[in-house]
Amino acid sequence: MIAIEITAPGGAGVLKPCERAMPIAGDNQVLIEVAAAGINRPDIMQRQGHYPPPPGASDIPGLEVAGTVVAIGNQVSHLKIGDRVCALVAGGGYAQYCLARASLALPIPETLDFIEAAALPETFFTVWSNVFDRGQLQAGETLLIHGGSGGIGTTAIQLAKAFGANVIATAGSAEKCRFCCQLGADSAIDYKRQDFAEEVGKLTDGDGVDVILDMVAGDYFPRNLKSLAIEGRLVQIAIQHGAKSEINLWSVMKKRLTITGSTLRGRDDEFKTQIAEQLRQRVWPLLASGTIKPVIHRCYPLTEAAAAHELMESGLHTGKIILTV
Ligand SMILES: NC(=O)c1ccc[n+]([C@@H]2O[C@H](COP(=O)([O-])OP(=O)(O)OC[C@H]3O[C@@H](n4cnc5c(N)ncnc54)[C@H](OP(=O)(O)O)[C@@H]3O)[C@@H](O)[C@H]2O)c1
Fold first, then answer.
1. Which stretches make up the Enoyl reductase (ER) domain (predicted)?
2. Residue nearest atom 36 in ligand 1 by C-alpha distance
3. Mean pLDDT of 33-46
4. Does domain 124-261 have CATH number 3.40.50.720?
5. Which ligand 1 atom is nearest residue 39's CA?
6. Ligand 1 atom nearest to 237, measured from its CA
């Protein structure tokens, strides 16, 4: 089969098409003939050599695929050959065929095509697990989403609104702010022109927000603490501005804040299966009814994965970038 491999850590040019052996499904796995695969920011970190695949995972990049089941393992009973599925995988997505744990392969709602379905797993698993489980966002509360126009951001805006929260998003241009509001955000802050903590103060009458989903960290950390309400929760999912920051513990004590965070890829299959079940029960009906829909910015053929990475690194996208096979 044709796959895209990372020939050496580096720029987008290190992504090259290659010939790989066809994977064979293990007992609890399915083999998917890939129709589309999502691009995620962690793929870029992996390409640069900063995010190695966990033990046992394929070295081929790609954390999510959509396609048709073409082989099933001995222990798999709830899926059959020919099923249309989208799956969360720990690697191997940039390829014509990809193995997935059967419990992490979800049916594709009839309202969605393969391209839209390939945009679901990584961001929906991440947002559900961090905003609703970890951050415990409740209806009527306010969520601040940094990077509202990206893959994670567009998912977080739609899910938070669908579950009755108020949403403030940050984004890096007036156009991206408008896009966040069109998608459902109640307000958006252009972080390049405005201080988000000041704006959050104004938008919440000084109360602050209940939950923050942050992928920036570094210099954002003190401003995130300032932006949180009493009993607020900061959920850290990336550290684009650096892992280190100074913490004012008094503000944590005074406001009884919770600081948490997680990474999805290295978690065990049991944990991911629990998230898959919650998504199937609580979120898949919203996709099936058209209440929420992934936002696709652009598709590239599999062999043009390097161009797809370049687009993501340019920051010019709004929503997801997808490879088609
Ligand atoms: N922890 C996990 O399990 C997990 C899983 C998946 C992804 N992630 C992380 O989540 C982040 C988003 O991933 P993605 O795939 O959605 O990538 P993406 O579509 O490229 O989104 C990246 C986002 O970061 C935003 N950003 C960068 N600097 C910012 C700043 N100073 N203030 C506010 N926003 C800023 C960008 O906003 P602008 O374009 O407006 O600048 C953009 O929306 C990445 O950092 C990724 O590593 C974490």
1. 10-323
2. 147
3. 98
4. yes
5. 15
6. 1
